[in-house]
Amino acid sequence: AKITTLLSDNNTYEALKRDPTSSYKKKVIACLQGLERDKTINRLTYHHLYPGNAIPCIYGLPMIHKEGIPLRPIVSSINSVTYNIAKDLATILAPLVGNTPHHIKNSTDFTDKVQKLTLDPDETMLSFDVSYFATCACLSDKQQYPTFFRTIPSDQFQADALAKLVKHFGWTWIGVVRSDTDYGNYGVASFLNAAQKVGICVEYSESFLRTDSQSKIQRVADVIRRSTALIVVTFIDSGDLIVLLDELALEPPPPRQWIMSDRWVADPYLMTYSFCEGAIGFAIQQSIIPGLKEFLLDLSPTEVASSSVLTEFWEDAFNCSLNKRTKTDKQLCDGTEDLKTLKNSYTDTTQLRITAMVHKAVYAIAHAIHNAVCWEAVVSTKCEKHLRSDSNQIFEKLQNVNFSRNTYSVSFDANGDSLAFYELVNWQKRESGVIELVTVGYYDASLPKGQEFHVNNNISWLKGSTQVPVSVCSESCRPGTRKVLQKGKPICCYDCIPCPEGEISNTTDSPDCFPCPSESWPNAQRDACFPKPVEFLSYDEVLAIILAAFSVSGACLAIITAAIFFHHRTTPIVRANNSELSFLLLFSLTLCFLCSLTFIGAPSDWSCMLRHTAFGVTFVLCISCVLGKTVVVLMAFKATLPGSNVMKWFGPPQQKMTV
């Protein structure tokens, strides 16, 4: 009853929807078959490691010293799927446990060792770390970690590099998956900050651990399956990712472009997942350590026999036995075995990444100690072999370490971080079906801003495609439309609205439309303005000919009338009519008739300015003359009294002034 009550605690235990045992068993068998095929294990070892059929069971051990006597749950995995493998590994590791004086048995042993430490009165204990694997950006905080250094780049640099990678390929709609650890949480926080600055939107950001409940892993997998983002950026450990990929493999999602972090980018086991083909990401720079290969190959059977680990490696590599007493079907090693003939991960020292970081860390400390006990003399460098260096002095020298070795340089900035250099690598499938790691670019944080990232075009994307995948929330708005953000969604999600009548937009993703200049019209697509068509009265049109004929005829009649008036200018009727005002009237009429001609023909700047001005002036002059004459006639009829002097105010001079 107690064990049933214990398992009913939903906060601690959760019932699986399906039994994964058969799936795990198939994977273990496939792995063993691969090891046997590669001759890493023989047939006998294969059968020895073959998974059992027993189902693990749980039972409770009563804790009688506690109130209520609760149960301590214990799971028995005897003869289960992984039992034989675990048992064999324990046998291999057993000789190594406790065989070195530099190990801690338990917390009591640790306390005893610390208590035995003694310091002289003039000594100060100072510890400092030069890490080769800790990448969390939080460790750059000198207030919390004042004595921390590292030869591996901080995740802050990797986050910036990933943001530049995503921006470079035009991906603005992505998903993010991370381990729920300092590595994942701090790394993603730095990445999201960098991504926001360059206009990248995140559809989802999920975190989990391999120890989380199956339902949580399923939920993360379902989020990836249902998402519209094609790009999945990861800040995740290999162990966590394997659990997620196993869940995704049960119901493979639509093709996804995986962006890898340095923790799993070079993991050979993960390359067996076919739907990760085309993944791209940043890896720690690989280096060649001078002398390492020669050191590894300089092993004799006598040296190997003194180490159980090397003995097992030697016997597996050459399929022979070093110990005559060992009961095995292998033949006895005869001493002619040569490590130089091997081609495996042991002899391949060309792709060392984390190992190179260890090499850097050791040499950084060595240089700091060297600089503390040595000085430059006139001719050569001198060192004091028996000089007792102060820890603070070594710490100070470590801060100022700066040296180059082989293909890399080592130095630390004010935060204790080393120079960041990443290789951009791509998982490319060969004709044999094997996925290989191919370097396709790099990121060098020491270069000027804008020049850190370099990539070539030899990238294999999803399913071996050479076309860069597209991942956007909304397609770009073409010219002739404007962007309108979708309510409640990131800025990368928007609708494209056509420009209103009379307005255009001539750029992609334009936020606004604008009207055309007054002399232009928008085209049908509303993405450009074109000049308004010029319409005018041509001389060869019928209306223009009629207008010109009337205009010339009217002008001729006015001129003929003026000529007749001039001929009879001395006659009483002409003189009584104020000949000067009459000539001015006829002149203005002539100009009025001729002004019509300025409205015929293609318009120009001068004709447009002249036509209205000339007609207005001449017409007003004509009306003024008529008005002047009318006033004189009107006053002549009103001035009927004899001796009235009214008309003297309307003589020729006064009429001219009136006009």
Summarize the SSE layout with pairings.
Layout: H1 2-7, H2 21-37, H3 43-49, E1 57-62, E2 71-76, H4 83-93, H5 107-115, E3 129-131, E4 148-150, H6 155-168, E5 173-179, H7 182-197, E6 201-208, H8 214-226, E7 231-235, H9 238-250, E8 257-260, E9 280-284, H10 292-297, H11 301-305, H12 308-318, E10 320-321, E11 331-332, H13 354-373, E12 374-376, E13 381-383, H14 391-399, E14 402-405, E15 408-411, E16 421-429, E17 435-444, E18 453-455, E19 481-485, E20 494-498, E21 503-504, E22 514-515, E23 520-522, E24 529-531, H15 542-567, H16 572-576, H17 579-595, H18 605-638, H19 652-658
Parallel strand pairs: 3-4, 5-6, 5-7, 7-8, 8-9, 10-11
Antiparallel strand pairs: 1-2, 9-16, 12-13, 14-15, 16-17, 17-18, 19-20, 21-22, 23-24
Helix pairs in contact: 6-7, 8-9, 13-14, 15-17, 17-18
GO molecular function: G protein-coupled receptor activity
Family: Belongs to the G-protein coupled receptor 3 family.
Subcellular location: Cell membrane
How would you summarize what this structure contains?
By secondary structure, the chain is an alpha/beta fold. It is 37% helix and 16% strand.
Description of the molecule:
A hairpin with an 8-residue loop joins strand 17 (435-444) and strand 18 (453-455). This protein has 659 residues and is an alpha/beta fold. It contains 19 helices and 24 strands. It folds into five domains: 2-97, no CATH class; 137-286 and 419-464, Rossmann fold (3-Layer(aba) Sandwich); 290-345, no CATH class; 481-485 and 497-531, no CATH class; 542-658. Helix 6 packs across helix 7.
